[in-house]
């Protein structure tokens, strides 16, 4: 069953990515692409030596909508001072959302619930040889004042290489995730946006515990003009990367370019 879900999720994401690349720009109902620069001091989990490091993150982020749903992805290039953990890391997440309302040709719901969506997602870490598949269901809400407010429920299926097969990080048992993501404009100059996730506990390939974690990354943005924003991102990560000894609470400087 799990292997079948992995294949279905990967096929759905790959096919959707191919469709996006193949379509002309005019095929998108809406599109938003951003480049982020963040700088701050981030914690190193205990299993990687502990401590903290000044860290710079470059992020390419894209969201767009089409006839039957929408998609979101980001790719981070992370560089930390002093080598070791996060010395140079590439990490990305992709989520394709298929709207039950749009596929069924239904009108937008008028109550609190705006739409129900099937999710096909994956997370990928290059240096750690980690791949996760995230099939699930998402709920979109009619929330006054919000550009969007979603609650996503997914599986968290591991397909990592694992240390036993030459990878850089242990493979893990499968788990599940709840994610709340939002954007709340305030006037024409300010925006509060981000997400908060909970991922359940699991066990790594050596039988060691990977603790459940809570990760919240809200941003406060001030727009200097329609294309450039400055602000902060607050990162709270309880049990960072499943390490019970590492809780992170830090503020990072943020610069955003919109394309």
Relevant CATH superfamily:
monomeric porin ompg
Which value, in Å, is the CA radius of gyration? 19 Å
pLDDT < 50 stretches:
none
User: Could you spell the SSE succession in H and E letters?
Assistant: HEEEEHEEEEEEEEEEE
The number of distinct β-strands equals 15
Percent of residues in beta strands? over 45%
Tell me the major beta sheet: 13 strands, antiparallel
Shape field? globular
Number of domains: 1
CATH class: Mainly Beta
The overall pLDDT average reads 90
Structural class: mainly beta
Structure description:
- The protein is mainly β.
- It is 10% helix and 57% strand.
- It has a single domain (2-25, 34-258), classed as monomeric porin ompg (Porin).
- The protein has helices at residues 2-22, 100-103; strands spanning 30-43, 52-66, 69-80, 89-99, 113-125, 130-141, 148-158, 175-186, 190-199, 202-203, 209-210, 213-216, 219-225, 228-238, 248-258.
- The longest helix has 21 residues, at 2-22.
- The chain is globular, with a radius of gyration of 19 Å.
- The termini are far apart.
- 25% of the residues are buried.
- The model has no long low-confidence stretch (mean pLDDT 90).
Give the topology:
Blueprint: H1 2-22, E1 30-43, E2 52-66, E3 69-80, E4 89-99, H2 100-103, E5 113-125, E6 130-141, E7 148-158, E8 175-186, E9 190-199, E10 202-203, E11 209-210, E12 213-216, E13 219-225, E14 228-238, E15 248-258
């Amino acid at each position: 069953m799990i292997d079948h879900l992995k294949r279905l999720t990967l096929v759905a994401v790959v096919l959707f990515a191919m469709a996006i690349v193949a379509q002309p720009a005019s095929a998108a109902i809406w599109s938003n692409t951003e480049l982020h620069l963040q700088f701050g001091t981030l914690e190193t989990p205990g299993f990687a030596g502990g401590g903290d490091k000044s860290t710079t993150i470059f992020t390419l982020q894209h969201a767009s909508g089409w006839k039957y749903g929408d998609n979101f992805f980001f790719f981070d290039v992370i560089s930390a001072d002093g080598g070791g953990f996060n010395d140079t890391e590439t990490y990305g997440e992709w989520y394709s959302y298929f709207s039950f309302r749009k596929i069924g040709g239904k009108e937008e719901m008028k109550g609190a619930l705006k739409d129900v969506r099937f999710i096909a997602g994956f997370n990928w870490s290059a240096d750690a040889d980690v791949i996760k598949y995230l099939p699930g269901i998402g709920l979109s809400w009619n929330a006054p004042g919000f550009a969007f407010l979603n609650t996503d429920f997914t599986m968290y299926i591991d397909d990592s290489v694992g240390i036993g097969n030459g990878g850089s990080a242990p493979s893990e048992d499968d788990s599940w995730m709840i994610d709340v993501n939002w954007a709340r404009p305030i006037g024409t100059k300010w925006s509060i946006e981000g997400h908060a996730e909970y991922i359940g506990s699991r066990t790594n390939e050596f039988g060691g515990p990977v603790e459940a974690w809570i990760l919240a990354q809200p941003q406060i943005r001030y727009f200097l003009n329609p294309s450039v924003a400055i602000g902060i991102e607050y990162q709270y990560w309880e049990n960072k990367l499943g390490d019970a000894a590492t809780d992170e609470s830090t503020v990072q400087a943020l610069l955003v370019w919109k394309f």
